[in-house]
């Protein structure tokens, strides 16, 4: 996903431009730190105290210049209007958040609001069109059968969450003025890997396969996650 995001940033903005980036639901700050290291001014918004502590600890270990380029705010992604003015950011990330939001449309509208004209909106969502893949490939036939036609599922943490369909999100992005520019699949072949599984010796080859599949039909359509990139009009 990081490679996909970099591709979109490089293709949309002049080389060397320091971008204003907002990472909504930044988690441990992996993507936010990566972009701060690349020279961008990054704001991370997160409500989970444990995640914030982990991100702050990681940031504290970075050189001073990177620490100065990143700030962390405690808050809910649905309250971007409280924290930021319209058009404040060139890039807005919202990765792995929508599945925990029962009504995502107001959140998405808020993200589009703080995005500058021509800015990039990057979403990572659970693929509602392929929910039967994980249970089916794991031999859970009852679970696979129940997944057809549904957008509800239980994640690996045991939480009951929701998925999004590409067609629905495409319409939503058009409606909030950040129409879909392109989309990728994420975790096409690796979604059934066990938590904590050891990385293979041929990791680079694995990543190359996933990257290729994530941009190739029909493979990307059955990926566990969808990476959608919208552009603010």
From TrEMBL:
SUPFAM superfamilies: S-adenosyl-L-methionine-dependent methyltransferases. Residues 22-122 form the Methyltransferase type domain. It holds the Pfam family Methyltransf_11. GO terms for biological process: methylation. Keywords: Methyltransferase, S-adenosyl-L-methionine, Transferase. GO terms for molecular function: methyltransferase activity. It comes from the Bacteria. This is Methyltransferase domain-containing protein. It comes from Streptomyces fimbriatus. The lineage of its organism: Bacteria, Bacillati, Actinomycetota, Actinomycetes, Kitasatosporales.
């Amino acid at each position: 996903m990081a490679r996909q995001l970099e591709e979109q940033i490089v293709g949309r903005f002049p080389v060397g431009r320091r971008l204003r980036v907002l990472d909504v639901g930044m988690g441990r700050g992996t993507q936010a730190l990566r972009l701060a290291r690349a020279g961008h001014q990054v704001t991370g918004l997160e409500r989970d105290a444990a995640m914030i502590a982990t991100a702050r600890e990681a940031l504290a270990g970075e050189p001073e210049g990177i620490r100065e380029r990143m700030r962390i705010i405690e808050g809910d992604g649905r309250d971007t209007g409280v924290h930021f003015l319209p058009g404040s950011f060139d890039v807005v990330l919202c990765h792995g958040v929508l599945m925990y939001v029962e009504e995502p449309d107001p959140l998405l509208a808020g993200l589009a609001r703080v995005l500058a004209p021509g800015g990039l909106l990057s979403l990572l969502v659970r693929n509602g069109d392929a929910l039967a893949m994980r249970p089916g490939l794991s031999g859970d036939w009852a679970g696979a059968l129940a997944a057809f036609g549904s957008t509800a599922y239980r994640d690996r943490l045991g939480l009951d969450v929701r998925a999004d369909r590409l067609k629905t999100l495409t319409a939503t992005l058009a409606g909030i003025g950040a129409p879909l520019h392109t989309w990728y699949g994420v975790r096409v072949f690796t979604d059934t890997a066990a938590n904590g599984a050891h990385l293979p010796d041929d990791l680079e080859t694995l990543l190359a396969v996933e990257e290729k599949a994530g941009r190739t039909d029909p493979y990307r359509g059955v990926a566990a996650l969808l990476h959608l990139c919208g552009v603010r009009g």
